[in-house]
Amino acid sequence: MQGIGSIISANASEKESRCPRIAVRDLSIRLGDFAVHAANLAVARGEYFVLLGPTGAGKTILLECIAGLYHPQKGEVLVDGVRANEVPPEQRGLGYLPQDYALFPHLDVERNIGFGMRLRRHPRAEVERRVRELAALLGITHLLHRSTLHLSGGEKQRVALARALAIEPKVLLLDEPLSALDERTREGLCVELRRLHEELGSTTVHVSHNFEETLAVADRIGIIHEGRIRQVGTPEEIFRRPNSEFVASFVRSDNILRGRARKTTRGLLVSIGELEFLAAEGGEGEVFMTVRPEDIEILKEASADHPNLRKGWVIRFMDKGALIKVEIDVGVLLVALLPRRIFRALGLCPGDTVAVSFPPEAVHVFAAT
């Protein structure tokens, strides 16, 4: 027969598993010019959550409150459902990777990685085993006896990540971990971070201002601006269904138009000046309408059966590498993103008369508040 102690323990374990791994409730703090206002977040176990926003938005302060480096002036931080406001950073079971990596210059790579374990008085053999495992996992075994002063940016990032992982944290906190790296190295380490996350089953909270980086790693995203959480959702929700003009602009919707919407037998009709566009869904009244630039088709010849068909002329285009950004005046300015192959096939030049088309399903409408 199962004892009462084991039943209580099992119930507690089940309750804990249902709790968010990290939660922030009505958290507010001000530090000089930086502030967070009444922030609420919940990060599930095993989730890769990215806090995304422009410089000065309050991302790092919020992460440092979770880490325990600052105490919120209002609200609370919970780890596994337990209030952690008064718990010292080293007792929260969190691994923290600061923006500058904060490697110890007087220690070699091996001793940097094992520092946290030695501080917690783990047996020497256990420290050595864990350091070797992480070095192999991150491909830095050949660096173990090298000084941290002679590492590249990507190598430093891997060493700092190994040090954060060495203590087997409940949550890994990453503060702009890739901001100092070149684009090629950043792309490679995004793949590495996602692989590590999936292999280790860890919970990760990652601060970033880079949308491409975020899309490469995130399960969910929280958009923060001027110290306030503006929207939380999956990459698809944030990317395709922004809830405000700021979020739409930040995720590069490009085509953000203000108008008035009304429901008709054809669907939701959005009037912008003398133009009307059909949307699949949305509310009535004063609204913003967005269309992703990659959803806009440019046509040299078009028939009336193309949805949301408008004629105009090419204003200019900008080379974006694999893609070409094209601006078209159809009575309002619309921006399209074309693969280089399609752009060449169309043979577009500034001043050319063209038509644009996009499906109603590509139109996202939200209230103009």
Counting DSSP E segments of at least 2 residues, the number of strands comes to 20
Output the structural class.
Answer: alpha+beta
Full CATH superfamily name of the largest domain = P-loop containing nucleotide triphosphate hydrolases
- Helical stretch count? 11
Strand content: 25-35%
Helical content (DSSP H or I, runs of 4+): 25-40%
> Biggest sheet, strands in spatial order?
6-7-8-3-9-10
- Describe the oligomeric state of these chains in a short phrase: single chain
Q: Please give the domain count.
A: 2
Poorly predicted ranges (pLDDT <50, ≥5 residues)? 1-12
Topology-level CATH name of the largest domain: Rossmann fold
Arithmetic mean of pLDDT: 90
**Biggest pleated-sheet summary:** 6 strands, mixed
What is the straight-line distance between the termini?
61 Å
State the main characteristics.
single chain; 369 residues; alpha+beta; Rossmann fold; OB fold (Dihydrolipoamide Acetyltransferase, E2P); 6-stranded mixed beta sheet; 5-stranded antiparallel beta sheet; 11 helices; 20 strands; 29% helix; disordered N terminus
